[in-house]
Amino acid sequence: MVFIRFILEFVKIGAFTYGGGLAMIPLLRSVAIEHSWLTNAEFANLIAIAQSTPGPIAINMATFIGFQQYGVMGAIAASIAVILPAFLMALIVARFLNHFNEHPIVKATLLGLKAAVIGLLATATLQVALVSLYTGQGNFINIFNGLEFKAVALFLFFIVVIYKYKKHPIYYIILAGLLGNIIW
Amino acid sequence: MELKKWQQLYVAFFKVGLLTIGGGYAMLPIIEREIVMDKKWLTMDEILESYSVAQSLPGVIASNTAVFVGYKLAGVGGAIACALGVITPSILIILGVAAVFKQLESLEIVQNAFKGIRIVVLALLCHSMVRMVKTSIKDYMAFLIALSGFVFVMFYNGSPIITIVIAGIVGAFVYKGKVK
Predict the structure, then answer these.
(1) What is the phi-psi region of residue A71: left when phi exceeds 0, alpha when psi lies from -120 to 50, beta otherwise?
(2) Contact across the interface for B59 and A82, Cβ inside 8 Å
(3) Residue A117, number of CB atoms within 10 A of its CB
(4) How far is the C-alpha of A138 from the C-alpha of A145, rounded, in Å?
(5) What InterPro entries does UniProt report for this protein, alphabetically (chain A) (predicted)?
(6) CA of B101: how far to CAs of A169, B32, B172, in Å?
(7) For B84, which residue in chain A has the nearest alpha carbon?
(8) ipTM of the complex
(9) CB B59 to CB A101 under 8 A?
């Protein structure tokens, strides 16, 4: 029963993710924290792992959590569950609804969805800030309390470098792993 | 031995899943090579059309695109073959990575690496957010929807799913007359 509920969580996430991998981050995060599958820091690590291994980010994250909770079966079940709702919808659209995405209601709905996804991603981004820029866990009440100077400096460095060079994330992730060992 | 069509599709999308790092847009050139240039099954225009429809559905864009391409070429069986093909490499590789990561997680060198990596993840997320704001926040209403969603989830512990549903409904009403 617990396993079925686990799978249903991923079906739900798959049904409400609009805009691909990044859009899934806030949904997956809220479920993973709620069920204590991962801590905030582990979730941030997972984003990096999913971005630097082959395959769609969303599938990678689902597979990882599935494996962690229920081993190989969990990994397979979670990744199939997360694509299942869209799979069924895509079949219906491919079969019956030509020019589905050109319909005004669909376009209008998507404009609303995409705006909301940005707000949601902002919440996930702030959570990642709390676990990456602070010693221990930061909070938003005293934002300077526990703020780690070296971490902030590294963050600013990467903001500039990413903006300037626009390389694939995997290069920055490797560089950050090296710098992490030099700095700490 | 000649492979059946669905087997060929599975193999083609297995390659797409394997060679796409990061998902989304990164997948297109690989689909182009496998499906358009190599096999000549579809034209690039047809692929791009599938890709754009795939973005208007929920879920993973890569697997949605795979479903459209598979369905066009070989019906429901083709759709299943392509969808499974695109996720198989992820499952195999992540299984390996997760198993290794579990062993190494507690090492100091790995801990320090991830201390740096979490910071770069933050920087990458900020970067993506700026890009998304530029493409999706084009008027006050979109800004208001994004801000309300943020406040609802961040400060009122609101559910992301409820936020998405409400934003979709609001979007449908607000933008209905404005899009062509």
Answers:
(1) left
(2) yes
(3) 29
(4) 7
(5) CHR_Transporter, Chromate_transpt
(6) 20, 34, 44
(7) A80
(8) 0.90
(9) no
Q: Which amino acid is at B100?
A: V
Instruction: Mark which residues 84-143 of B lie under 8 Å from A by CB.
Output: 86-87, 89-91, 93-95, 97-99, 101-102, 109, 112-129, 132-133, 136-137, 141-143
**Structure-token pair, residue A5:** 């509920």
The answer to whether residue B165 neighbours chain A at the CB level (below 8 Å) is: yes
- The encoded tokens of residue B84 equal 């499974």
Cβ contacts from A onto B, under 8 A: 374
User: Given A57, A169, A176, which is nearest B116 (Cβ)?
Assistant: A176
Q: Is B18 on the interface with A (CB under 8 A)?
A: yes
pTM: predicted TM-score of the whole model, two decimal places = 0.88
β-strand partners of A134: A147
How high is the mean pLDDT in each 10-residue block of chain A (184 residues)? 92 88 88 92 90 86 93 94 92 82 87 90 89 77 81 95 87 90 90
- Give me the count of residues in chain B: 180
Q: Does B20 touch chain A (CB under 8 A)?
A: yes
Residue of A117, A81, A168, A37 whose CA lies nearest to B20:
A168
